[in-house]
Amino acid sequence: MILMAGPCVIESEESLFTIASSLEAYRDDDRFDFYFKASFDKANRTSLESYRGPGLDEGLRLLQKVKDEFDFQIVTDVHESQQIEAVAEVADILQIPAFLCRQTDLLVAAAKTDKIVNIKKGQFMNPADMQYSVLKVLKTRGCDEVSHENAKKHGVLLTERGSTFGYGNLVVDMRSLVIMREFAPVVFDATHSVQMPGGGGGTTTGDSSMAPYLSKAAAAVGVDGFFFETHFDPSIALSDGPNMLRLEQLKSLTETLTKIDAVK
Question: For the whole model, what pTM was predicted?
Answer without folding.
Answer: 0.96
